[in-house]
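Hey team,

Filing this mostly as a record. A colleague (T.K.) asked me to run one chain through the structure pipeline before their review meeting, and I want the input and output archived in the tracker in case anyone asks later how it was produced. No errors, nothing strange. Just documentation.

Input sequence:
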Amino acid sequence: MKKTTLFALAAFAPLALAASSALAATAANDAPIATADEPTLASEVVVQAKIAYRNRSESTAPVLEYGLDYFQRFEPLTVGDALKRVPSVSFLSDVLESDGVRLRGLDPAYTQILINGEKVPGSGSSSGAFGSGADQAFFVDRIPAELIDHIEIVRSNSANRSGDAVAGALNIVLRDALALDGGYVRAGALMFDDKRIRGAFGGVWGGQVGPGRLLIGANVQGRRNPKEKLSLRYDEPGASLNNNEIQTDTRNGTDSSFNIAYDVPVGPGQLSVNGFYVHTDRFQDEDSIEYNKGVAANANLSTINNNDVDIQQDSYSLNGKYKFPMAGGETSIKLGYAAFQNDEYEFEYETEYLRDTTPFPDGDRFTGDRAKTRITDDEVSAKLEHKREIAEGTDLEFGVQYEGKRRDARVSEVPRNRYNLPSASPPAYGPFAISSKARLEQTRLDPYVMLSGRSNGLKWEAGLRYETTDVKVQDFVINAKTDKDYNVLLPSASVRYDLTGADQIYASVARTVRRAGFEYLSPVTLEEELGDNDFRGDPTLEPEKAWGVDVGYERRMGRDGVFGINVFYRDIKDLIEIYNTGAPGSANDPPDDVTWLYSARNTGDGKVYGIEFDLSTPLSFIGWDNTGVFLNYSYLDSEVKDEFGKRRFNSQAESVFNVGFIQDIPSFGAAFGMTYRKQGEAYSRVVGEEVTTTYGADLEAFIEKRIGKNTVVRLTGSNLLDAKKEETFNKFTTIADQRGRSFDEYELEREKAGPVFQLTARMAF
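Output structure:
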């Protein structure tokens, strides 16, 4: 991070405030500051008087907006749980997990996650692949749903937003100080399939404090996910069973959050300060037993494995914004700081039997691994923006945005403790020593300019954004340092036209970029990072560049309903993908254990396309005013070439389908509803391995009873169909074997979890 740039921006801010206040005081034709809507009463948030539908956004660029009341009756615990009901959002998570958003089915790094319009730091993974350093994806299951006011799905980019949103952007807007009058408390309990019960408690209050308005909120909720897994391994499809693995996987934890916002008039303008803090305490316990020939008997016992991960995460953000009239328009200055820290302690103990023909315990072996991982992210941001009318119906907006980011990642391990059985005195574990230590520093300075206008039912915008990026990657273990600079010009344009009072059409074109994540850039070798395979990044990777088009139609249906259809296309250059280098991995032990060293590379070009439908409406046209229906369907496809020919983008779901209803019973003060979700098949292919993933359907339901004007009690059930995740692995030793379909191993993995029931009471005051 360039400290001189930071200091200059920090010094500039108060001077700009003073100068602009003076200008505002003397400019007779300065534009007034827009006033906020009246705050919503807390009782209206708690006791929903009517069914909520998708909001119809009036933005020129294609945006879908969903208020918290659209999701709340199904009591989502996290933002990830809420997003399961919106178009084109898929996940490649375990059952009952909704972490890395795959907008339009693409890798989470293609989706920009914003909180209140600002980028957030965070690890893309807490364990497993790239648990030590993914930084271009944010896990939305870390944000409690109680914090949000509404969620925006931004399908195409505009010049005044960061361009790293190839698939689109998700803007999670938290409640601000102007949004709520009064408060409410929430208490609940969740019962999981293993009969364990966890609590959930929270509260929010908003009101006038001094000259401004204050909002504070806090939330503590228990998390648990007990799953069962089964793996069946064969030499090839149709062959007899070699071995099976029976596994239990339980993830238990607590999420605690706090948020605060304060809005106050200062001089001629409005000052807004907001912050949030989220702490995750999580323990993952995986235990498995393998049997040869699929016979669960001691004589066939092959391996016993115990793999535990203790995770502690902290995310926090503090932002300030001052908006004021200046020079005939409106100027805003924003300063922000965000940080993320992830600490993990992991151990894996494995005992191997039947390694030879000698009876137990002779010839058997124990292997123990222990590791600690620490990731810290610090990001400083600053924005200076100005908007003014330059002609009747035409606005000019321009500004500059700064971002300074530093990420440190460190992995410490003890030497592998491996010894043959029996052992009268097993060797002691050695001390922890640093095996990987790296730092990424990224500085961006992005100026932009945008024109927008409106006239006779036509709205349009067009702009240019110039993003400059300076990336330094330093590895302290191998003492290597790489400095890479690149600049990208990102044009964008959107138009929206009212055909009638109820019908709109729109079109948008934008160029976007995907930067390589830290894990792809770091040249250090991460052992057994992708399953049993190693991974080493490449600091010379080029960013991906994409041209995208969105064209759509929306129709307002009655007072609350809306129907939409959208067609999208993305043409992506310099595609970044993982590949098998062909070098053996650290755990390579043929013929039984064949492992590889993987890396990342720019593999060429690709294209992504699809069509998205969504419907959200009451059934008033048949006289059912108290019945609301929701439906969305997305057909997703793509094309890229690799060593074996054409395929889809790795792990892109073929489709996403949601349908549901809510029935309100005003005379009884009650309501009930259901929602059904099905995600299509996903396929991934790299050298050495091909994976097909399918998910079972997910059914959720709720029933609620309103008590007076201020209280509601709600019972919800999720995963009522005992959803399953099924993966098929085709594994090969060489490229020639993969082309000739000569298998090294064929594996079927099945995972399932049971239903979760939640009883919640909310009371406004």
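Quick notes for T.K.: Residues 1-36, 124-135 have pLDDT under 50 and may be disordered. The CA atoms of residues 515 and 543 lie 5 Å apart.
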